[in-house]
Write a structure and sequence with these properties.
By secondary structure, this protein is of the alpha/beta class. The protein contains 11 helices and 25 strands. The protein binds flavin-adenine dinucleotide.
């Protein structure tokens, strides 16, 4: 049993302290509930900048924030670093890695992870970007491949080690492709004079006929032309059908030899045992009503990436993006307040604030509700919005300094291969990802 005092207040357990969980927890301050926050990490992470850590552009500490620091002065708040395992809905108990805990209300906000559509090979040999642990593994392996390329005994091995295949042309795939292309252009030539004219080869594979397929055709085309100008080989209408340790197979029957497969193509809700099977939909998302209540469970809510809320405007559910998670959490906090006053609950209506993606220096695409633009202005807008969204003044300053440094010097701050003791650091093919 997790030891938390029983007080004369209803207990809300928030499982997962990402965008949704953190917003809800902050908004519940002084609202008359006991709040228990559970997360398997002791920090909040900022996934939109994962690709910059993966490509050695930012230090990981700039995009992480310790949860205990955030809640230092919150009364009746309890934080536990535990992994959520399952729910015993009959007894209002949540089962975690440190034992069980009872709830009056349970909010599931523990996000999503990679989906490999049943490909065990892809799961084994590709590297994902869904957690900071995966991102650091990717960065280390990438840098290790460059080092191994210097000592490679023949040109074939060197080329394989310097070939990167990114699968999935959504925002994450496009952003990491652009960042690696910049690294290729500005950093590899200086760090590795041994490569002379040889540069890394970057492939971006996308199954549908364009990258950034959730944005307008114009933004897609712009992003593609930006990437191609930077030397990325963009293969659209192309499916990766499988892989082995050193090859990606594509549906044309061709294959690409590679030392690094990056997987950004699929997403599925983190597992939650104990709920009825019919609560789950496509993509492992938990079906919720317009108040984010899980179907069939009046005391259980789901928010953000893990939830599926359908409606007239979003028959397939909302996009799995930060704004949906934040806005759902804001409304749920207000509804918890209304419940206390026996007022009727408000239904969720998503306010789409727009989408954006960056490809590299002066190259970005932005689609706001009233205006769309690309290029230099879009890039500055992208930077400003991401900087403002990061938690903590120190993190904002660190990122701003990093970006300014990179802007003027064309250099990247962190190119260190750092693996915990016990993880091989000579071969790049250490596929374990310690959490
Ligand atoms: C690489 C990448 C780039 C992205 N870029 C953008 C972008 O530019 N703009 C945008 O709007 N969105 C972007 N997204 C999507 C955005 O990050 C998500 O939509 C958002 O994080 C969802 O918020 P959430 O609170 O539902 O989940 P998360 O923010 O993922 O939070 C889930 C939390 O649950 C915790 N957790 C997970 N499993 C367990 C468990 N079993 N037990 C306990 N705790 C657990 C995790 O540690 C985490 O703190 C990106 C995502 C990725 C992966």
């Amino acid at each position: 049993m997790i030891n938390i005092p029983n007080i004369d207040k209803k207990r809300i357990i928030i499982a997962g302290c990402g965008f949704a969980g953190l917003t809800l927890a902050k908004k519940l301050k002084n609202k008359g509930y006991q709040v228990v926050i559970l997360d398997k990490h002791n920090y909040h992470q900022f996934p939109p900048l994962f690709y910059q850590v993966a490509s050695a552009g930012l230090e990981e500490s700039s995009i992480l924030f310790p949860l205990r620091k955030i809640f230092q002065h919150y009364k009746d708040y309890h934080l536990r670093k535990v992994e959520v395992e399952s729910v015993d809905t009959a007894n209002n108990l949540l089962i975690t890695s440190a034992g069980e805990i009872n709830y009056d209300y349970l909010v599931l906000a523990h996000g999503a992870t990679n989906a490999y559509f049943g490909s065990a090979q892809m799961q084994k040999y590709s590297r994902g970007m869904k957690t900071i642990a995966e991102v650091l593994d990717l960065r280390n392996s990438l840098l290790m491949n460059f080092e191994n390329a210097v000592t490679a005994q023949n040109a074939e091995d060197r080329e394989m080690l310097l070939t990167i295949v990114i699968i999935g042309g959504g925002p994450s795939g496009v952003e990491i492709a652009g960042a690696l292309a910049e690294m290729n252009k500005y950093v590899l030539s200086k760090d590795y004079p041994e490569f002379k004219e040889i540069r890394a080869k970057i492939f971006l594979i996308e199954a549908v006929d364009r990258v950034l397929s959730t944005m307008s055709r114009k933004s897609s085309d712009k992003a593609r032309s930006f990437l191609e100008k930077m030397g990325v080989h963009v293969l659209t209408s192309t499916k990766a059908t499988g892989c082995d340790e050193k090859t990606v197979f594509i549906d044309s029957g061709k294959s690409i030899g590679t030392g690094m497969i990056i997987w950004t193509a699929g997403i599925t809700g983190n597992q939650t045992e104990g709920l009825n099977a019919d609560c789950f939909s496509r993509g492992g998302r938990i079906r919720v009503d317009s108040y984010n209540r899980v179907s069939g469970y009046p005391d259980i809510y789901a928010l953000g990436d893990i939830s599926l809320q359908t409606g007239e405007r979003y028959p397939q559910g909302h996009p799995q993006v930060a704004q949906v998670a934040i806005q759902q959490a804001q409304l749920l906090a207000e509804n918890f307040k209304r419940m206390k006053r026996n007022k009727s609950l408000k239904e969720f209506k998503y306010k789409d604030l727009g989408t954006m993606a960056t490809v590299g220096r002066h190259l970005a695409v932005v689609e706001l509700p009233s205006v769309r633009f690309q290029g230099v202005l879009a890039w500055f807008v992208w930077m400003f919005i991401h900087l403002m969204s990061i938690i903590g003044v120190k993190n904002k300053l660190m990122i701003f300094m990093n970006w300014a440094w990179k802007y003027f010097t064309y250099d990247q701050s962190t190119r260190l291969i750092l693996r915990p003791k016990g993880c091989a650091d000579i071969s790049s093919n250490n596929y374990s990802t310690p959490e």
